[in-house]
Amino acid sequence: MSEGVRVEYQEELERLESSALGGLDLVSAALGRTLEAIEHQDVELAQLVIADDDRIDGRYLEVHQSLIALLATQSPVATDLRLISALLHVLKNVERMGDQCVNICKLIPLTGNEPPADSEMVKRIVAMGAQTRTLISQAKRSFEERNVEMARDLVRQDDVVDDLNRECFHLALAIGDDADKREWAMTMLLAARAIERIGDNAVDIGEQVAFVVTGLFKEFEDASHPDG
Amino acid sequence: MTALLEVEGVSVRYGDFQAVQDVTITIEPNKVTALIGASGCGKTTFLRSLNRMHELTAGARVEGEITLDGQDIYAKGIDPVRVRRLVGMVFQAPNPFPTMSVYENVAAGLTLNGTKAKKSEKDEVVERSLRRAHLWDEVKDRLGKHGSGLSGGQQQRLCIARAIAVEPEVLLMDEPCSALDPVATLAIEDLIRELKNRFTIAIVTHNMQQAARASDVTAFFNLEETGKPGRLVEVGLTETIFTSPSEQATEDYVSGRFG
């Protein structure tokens, strides 16, 4: 086996992987700011997250275009092909996660200037966000290390997010009859739901890790057939 | 009508040199099997052993068993000429008989095999073979012209028409597109996909994308080092070989990391 065949192509593929996975760092930073904006009802910080989403979208477009160019010009097969297919999925997830942060940030002006109607709910949303950021970095690391075990563990980590989301739902139900409070609680539920979706996106990335390594695509958990 | 070609523990030697070692593979009917691998890995030698063509090289011999629909093609008393009628071959460079007309080129197979056919029967076979080779419309008005006057792609389709005129069971192709331009190549690939409905097909190719495009099953041949015999490393569905091969050597070859 001769070394040094297709070096530029391999380097380009490595560069694109690191660039696509770097999108997860952008998302994690955006989510961090989003949580801070929720906690402090900081509308300006929320505006910044919304404006900064262009960077995430730009990353998506740039890496996507380069991957398509590799497909067109280099005829990748086997592991390279699986990697490129997985990176296209990862990029889509990155883009979706960024949009969810934007969705949350658009809600923040609606929560008003009054102190939070239920500080317990805010606490849980912030905890969900922190846990989701852990998921994002674990998804990235499992991809970089091609570690299927670590990728599978994302499901367990995501259960924590799901549980907190359910608790938020019950807190919202129990918030009482005051119309303003109910509106606040509904808005916060939308935020919690968006964070919960970001967690799901991180699990999806884990499934792509398994695909790159094994060549088989299987959802870690099949929501349509939970007992199957 | 298509036949099953079963190969069991086949090794090929030229004198003291062992070119191919211990190949076991089933070449299935109605499928295109592509043989891929770097130069010198024994894939062409192996292909030629499938219709005893290698015997034309002095000192060549085959061990192991090759059966066509259960019949051992190396059994005593089996005439190699009969084997080659049942297992046809198309070569790398198009090689129509240069002094013969298009018509005579296609009919040559019948004549050489000693089939005495009436003119009307020959006409029928020539037209049917040229149609199957996707060449009829292009040459029907110049059947009497020399075959060597056709384009490269047309010449290769003429050779395919000649090979299928004798109604073989199996069609072997040794890099049939390596001398052709991309458009002619794609035309031959389309033809190969169509011919598999009628013939069992094995094709040697250096063009990995061709194997990916045109074959159903891919067999990867490799040799550990120069001077060692070629071996069959892995055989599987083409889709599997090009998405998730089992062997690292296959992965490296199809990804273009060596060879």
Structure description:
The complex is a heterodimer of chains A (228) and B (259). Chain A is built from 6 helices and no strands. Chain A is an all-alpha fold and 228 residues long. Chain A has one domain: Methane Monooxygenase Hydroxylase, Chain G, domain 1 (Up-down Bundle). The N and C termini of chain A lie far apart (45 Å). Chain B has a domain of 177 residues: Rossmann fold, CATH 3.40.50.300. In chain B, a hairpin with an 8-residue loop joins β9 and β10. The longest helix of chain B is centred in the middle third of the chain and has 14 residues. In chain B, the strands form 2 sheets. Chain B has a 6-stranded mixed beta sheet with strand order 6-7-8-3-9-10, with helices on both faces. Chain B is α/β, with parallel strands linked by helices and 259 residues long.
What average pLDDT do the residues of chain B reach? 92
Spell the H/E element sequence of chain B: EEEHEEHEHHHHEHEHEEHH
Q: Compute the CA-based radius of gyration of chain A.
A: 20 Å
H-E order of chain A: HHHHHH
Largest Cβ-defined interface: A-B, 15 and 15 residues
Q: Mind describing the biggest β-sheet of chain A?
A: none
Secondary structure class of chain B reads: alpha/beta
Classify the fold: give the CATH topology of the domain at 5-96 and 170-254 in chain B.
Answer: Rossmann fold
The quaternary structure here is heterodimer
The first-level CATH class of the domain at 5-96 and 170-254 in chain B is given as Alpha Beta
CATH architecture of chain A: Up-down Bundle
**CATH class category name of chain A:** Mainly Alpha
Structural class of chain A: mainly alpha
Count all strands of chain A and give the number: 0
The total strand number of chain B stands at 10
Binned, the helix content of chain A reads over 70%
